[in-house]
Structure formats: C-alpha cells, structure tokens
Amino acid sequence: MCRRNLSVLWLIVLVMSTSSCFLNPDEKKIVDPPVELKNFLPLTTREAVLNNLELAYSRQKITPYRELLDPNFSFFFSPGDVGGNIPEQWGYPDETRVADLLFNTSLDDPLYPTCRSIRMDLKFESGVQWVDVIPEDYPTETWYTTTVYYEFTFEMNPDMTYIAVPGSLAEFTVRNTGTDAAPLYKLIEWRDLAVNQP
Fold first, then answer.
1. Average pLDDT over residues 79-102
2. Cα(131)–Cα(28) distance, rounded to whole angstroms?
3. Which range marks the domain in which residue 142 is found?
4. Structural domains counted in the chain
5. Strand partners, 162
6. Is residue 49 part of a domain?
C-alpha cells in the first residue's frame, strides 16, 4: 500500500508514473463508506459542493463532477510536491482529463493504470467554517473558502492501492454563479495542503 497525497496521485495518472507500492494480498482492505445512502444534491449550498465532490469520486461519476466545477477551476498542488513534472497548478481541462481517466473503470489503455475503485471521504459532515474571500480578479464577488481533512483509497490495476497520508488537508473555495435568491455554487479552487503539521 502506498500513502500518497492527492496531488501526487493526479500526476501518477497524468504522466504515467510507475510505483513499486503493491498491495499486500494479506492486508485487510479499508471498508468503503456507505455512499449508497447519500445522494447528489442540488448545488444550492456550499456544503452540497463538498457532498457531490465526495460522491462523484466514490461512485466514479464524471458528469456530476464536471457539473460542480467552475469553468475557471484551478487545482493547486501541495508546495512540497511541486517540481519536475509536477506544476504549481492546473485548470479545468487537465482536471477533467485526469478525472475522466480515474473514473473510467473499464479503461483498457496500456499507457494508463485503470482505477477499479475509489473511496473518498471529506470530513465536513460535522460542520465546516467558511471564510469570505474577495478575489483579486473578481472584486465584485464574494467567494467562500473552507479547509477540511480528507481520506481516500484508490485501487488501481494491477493490484496497486494508494491511500491518503493520515492528517491530509485540502482547502476548497466555492463561488455562487447564480443569484442570492437562486444560488448555484461551483468549485473554483482546490488546494492540496498535504499533511497538517503539529
């Protein structure tokens, strides 16, 4: 089993990295959360974005994932991971290309590992604190940022399992692309903060 943060996993798929982190068949597998009991929600609240993000990954559903991303979405890699083939950030086209590959359980391409299953758990159900942000490029808007712990398990062919480093954190920023009366929240930024240091 390999312990990874999310940004490194993205690059494994994107640049076809290889790993010697093979799952020991004798190890117990992590039990999936009961995502079948959850539903995709209308994106009328900020928490709905986090809910749908978790479900889109756990169910490997690309359509609801694309729907929750803002067209100007940016993913920011953990600063400790940047360098070599890993950029500081990427936008909507690269993010959706990688998600297309990760969510395709029938992928049969020798250049990319097939992801058989994903377990994603964002720790937001007990409540999160949103911070108002006035973005420099959008001074007439108010965006909302929160930081949450996350866990994941990605099971890849041929018998590789990647799990999150304990204590991994991510910062999510959403914007209301609708109106005050009819809000429509979208994920505009996702920053991988890696591990919370005491």
1. 85
2. 39
3. 2-15+38-195
4. 1
5. 2, 154
6. yes
